[in-house]
Design brief:
Blueprint: H1 2-42, E1 49-52, H2 54-62, E2 69-72, H3 96-100, E3 106-110, H4 116-124, E4 128-132, H5 138-152, H6 155-177, E5 184-190, E6 196-199, H7 204-211, E7 215-216, E8 223-225, H8 228-234, E9 238-242, H9 243-249, H10 251-255, H11 264-268, E10 271-274, H12 276-280, H13 286-298
Parallel strand pairs: 1-2, 1-3, 3-4, 5-7, 5-9, 9-10
Antiparallel strand pairs: 5-6, 6-8
Length: about 300
């Protein structure tokens, strides 16, 4: 009896030991499979994004996907860290080979990316290319953030970005609403003395001027070269410029432009200069740029900046 009992217990111990040894393996395999399924379903593989156009690049970074950007065009200057990335030329004249050399999984571009042959060549290589229309209103700017967020899987992050844009926008509109005057504003685009253009209707510059409670000093469409006669006829109270434009001319040279001394802006030396990408990009800093323009337009720092006579 004792021998049988011992044999029986030994048999049970062997069986139980075998089960005990197998169970962790089954559990581990099962967990490994679950982890694998979880990663495949819930954790997306990081993209390799090439961003073409400053506003698009800025949106991607604002959405927290900056580490996924592997290259950008030369108009992408914000945030500063993007300037350390490989450059693929100007968004309007990209070379497909340069973009493809960065092995992107996705190319995001601003309206106007080209040439078309390069875009088609990138697409033919199996790369997803998304081009986003240029906004003309705050709502369209907000929608572009949402569309970019959807394209890169960052819709949740877009909520806080848009909330900030909305808050700043509302703040600027409140400032403009308190003003009893509507200054005439002339947007001057400059890239040295040989490139002087005035922004007319249906431009981003006019959108910023109008929302800030100003009146575009010209009534033509798009951009036209600056002329002394046109400058005098526009009678601007204020000049609005991008900072790089100011740098390309120099402040002293601006006030020496032919005809400017015969305008209220020239006599009072009223100039508002805002960061290029911030002012014209209509990206995540749209509201912040609008606050700057609105505040400087309606709350001049000193009496010399008062709205001039017409």
């Amino acid at each position: 009896m004792q021998v049988k009992t011992i044999v029986t217990w030994m048999f049970l111990l062997i069986v139980l030991g075998s089960v005990a040894c197998e169970r962790p393996v089954e559990h581990e395999n099962k967990d490994s499979k679950m982890v694998s399924e979880h990663v495949a379903v819930d954790v997306e593989k990081p993209q390799r994004i090439v961003a073409l156009g400053g506003p698009i690049t800025e949106i991607v970074y604002a959405l927290g996907a900056g580490e996924e950007v592997v290259g950008a065009d030369i108009t992408s200057t914000y945030p500063e860290s993007v300037t350390a990335l490989p450059r693929v030329g100007m968004f309007r004249s990209i070379a497909a080979e340069g973009v493809l050399s960065l092995t992107p999984t996705m190319v995001l571009g601003i309206e106007g990316v080209g040439p078309d042959t390069s875009v088609e060549q990138i697409r033919a290589a199996g790369i997803d290319v998304e081009i986003f229309d240029e906004p003309q209103t705050f709502e369209q700017a907000k929608q572009r953030v949402e569309l970019v967020a959807k394209a890169i899987g960052r819709t949740k992050e877009a909520e806080s970005v848009i909330e900030t844009m909305r808050s700043e926008y509302d703040q600027a509109i409140a400032v403009a609403g308190k003003s009893s005057v509507q200054p005439r504003v002339l947007f001057l685009y400059a890239r040295g003395a040989n490139t002087l253009l005035v922004g007319g209707k249906n431009t981003t510059a006019e959108t910023m001027i109008t929302l800030a409670g100003g009146l575009n000093a010209v009534d033509f469409e798009g951009f036209k070269p600056l002329s002394p006669e046109g400058l005098i006829a526009a009678k601007p109270d204020v000049l609005l410029m991008a900072e790089k434009g100011v740098e390309s001319l120099g402040v002293d040279a601006i006030w020496q432009l032919n005809g400017l001394d015969q305008t209220p802006a020239g006599r009072n030396r009223r100039l508002i200069a805002i960061d290029d990408a911030k002012l014209l990009g209509m990206g995540p800093r749209f509201g912040s740029a609008l606050i700057e323009v609105t505040t400087q337009l309606h709350e001049p720092k000193d009496a010399g900046n008062a709205v001039g006579e017409r």
